[in-house]
Amino acid sequence: MKCHYIHTKIAVFSLAMVLYTCCRASPLTLHPVVLIPGSGGNQLEARLTEKYNPSSLWCNRWYPLKKDPDGWFRMWFDPTLLLRPFTKCFNQRMMIYYDSDEDDYHNAPGVETRVPHFGSTQSLLYLDPSLKSITSYMEPLVRSLEEIGYINGENLFGAPYDFRYALAAQHHPSKVASKYLSDLKSLVESASASNGGKPVILLSHSLGGLFALHLLDRASISWRQKYVKHFIALSAPWGGTVDEMRTFASGNTLGAPLVDPLLVREEQRSSASNLWLLPSPTVFDKGKPLVVTPNFSYSSSDIVVFLRDIGFSEGVSPYKTRVFPLIESLPSPEVPVTCVFGSGVKTPEMLVYGMGGFDEGMEVVYGDGDGTVNMVSLLALESTWDGVRNQSIKVIKIEGVSHTDVLKDERALERVIGEVSSINSEFSMNFE
Does a cis peptide bond (omega within 30 degrees of 0) precede residue 64? Predict the structure, then answer.
């Protein structure tokens, strides 16, 4: 009898999948989807004012030549940043600064920024539309969603943001990130209202998952029940990453050719969201060394010491007051959650530095993960929420898929679209 029930369930689910994947569903039958990108996953525009003080002739206000009539230009992503003189310009313009008096971050003097196309998927598709083949980001995912009936601006929406800024712990201001969270909440409400009151599916990648989780945590349970059907998180670094310690210690080119990691280190250290992504002692074993030097071994409980020792003491106060209280817990939202991520990809698990210090190369000891996020961080919600009442969580691991390939790998897209289709058909089945 039990076997017959299982076969029946599989048959029903398979039929639902055929209906959703082989035929374009009417937009009226679909729950709206809101896409939330990861760090660096959307375009960012800038404009230079008279207060801007260039660090060199290369960085003068004439650069770049291509601007709109009001002086706005795309700051991220700009391929010229790969060239050394322009890398320095990019750093100067991209940096943000912590003001201890205001207890908040702000742009560099004379640099105004804006996020284009909020509400649309447009700035999520390609980081540089003129270089589609090498800067494609969410385009394969969006195309796959369109194939099952989703339409940009009707039942499919994008929520880009200024990914340099992060949320802060309670009673600490975070003007830019808090405004984003408010705009995201309004987008969810309007997406639902324009689709017959259907609750939305939040679909995030990487850092976007942390913003989505805090959106849910800071909203009332009645709001969550009314407006959010499901939360699908792709490659979310719930407890940060070891690779982020490399970013702070030595700079991180993220695989970009020609770029000296030490040239981008200062800008990367300035990012509030990077502080947020340092390994959390709530998730990582406090007794396990993550960075080893001849004089000291740093675990997830030694982040303050680590920041001082790498020469970034200005990061200590915002980490202790704004970030640490934010990462002490992973509150359950009482909304169904599905985590999708890769596994079996070599991921930095320990960084070993020699006598040359943090400016020299390091030996990397690898472990399991998606190439960027460690497995313990990817699995943090499952381990933290085990046994929590009113909290459904499903985990889908895809062997050999990297942190960003989850957005374009055929196997990964099949699983993600399968989840969306399953939610829309009101059937749920555990693949694992």
Answer: yes
